[in-house]
Amino acid sequence: MDKHQAYSELVQKRKAAEFPAGLQNPSQIAAGQFDSEQLGPWSLWQGNLDAELLVIGQDWGDDNYFVRNRGRDTDDNPTNRGLRKLLSNIGLDPGLPSAPTTQPLFFTNAVLGLKSGGMSAELKHDWLRHSSVNFIAPLIEIIQPRLIVTVGISAFKALRLIFPSLPYESMNGLLKYPPFHLPDKRILFAMSHCGGLGLANRTMEEQLKDWQKIGPYLQNTMSPLSDKLEQKVKQEP
Predict the structure, then answer these.
(1) pLDDT (tens digit, 9 = 90+) per residue, 65-104?
(2) Is 137 within the bounds of a domain?
(3) What's 124's DSSP letter?
(4) Measured between alpha carbons, how far is 121 from 44 in angstroms, rounded to an integer?
(5) What is the CATH number of the domain that holds 168?
(6) Beta-strand runs (E) in the chain
(7) Domain containing 150: what range?
(8) Is residue 236 assigned to a domain?
């Protein structure tokens, strides 16, 4: 099956899903008028199905944020600002949510339902399990990224539900590990959250150093793509 068709079917599955108690499906909020044809709102920013780097955040926000911004992200969201800085430091510029660039990136969240009670309300284990098993695992198989970055401990826990060999560690403990090697030669980097609470525990300067570990792997991944593109251009009349 073509990956675009497979992704479209996964989106329709999400739209029809009944999420665990405490979460709402974006398709059910305000009669679905702010929902999109993406797996989640964050993928509107970067949703390249040929992405070499898949970024998995924790969750997108709450229902009030979703309605207030009509299902779209804001450029001044602290997490978005932090992620832009971290990606730019390794040579990738995603642009702004309101003006995305074309990059080999795909953004999604570990929890695809929307909670109530504020942007930083706690994420529950059954929320992570529902989204990771039903949506994140199939998404990885559709995109087949070479590199995966989890942003925050909850995002890493979601990946651990898909790949049980990953260790049980605190965020500080995970940062001491080298990259994790997953099946099909995929490489996982566990990173701190780059929003307000995450930066309170690990400064932007420290996180910039953490993300520098991705650079060499990204260069090795992207070089063959650049070579293929150059050859294709040479072959065109």
Answers:
(1) 999 999 999 999 999 999 999 999 999 999 999 999 999 9
(2) yes
(3) P
(4) 23
(5) 3.40.470.10
(6) 53-59, 95-96, 99-100, 105-111, 147-151, 180-182, 186-191
(7) 3-229
(8) no
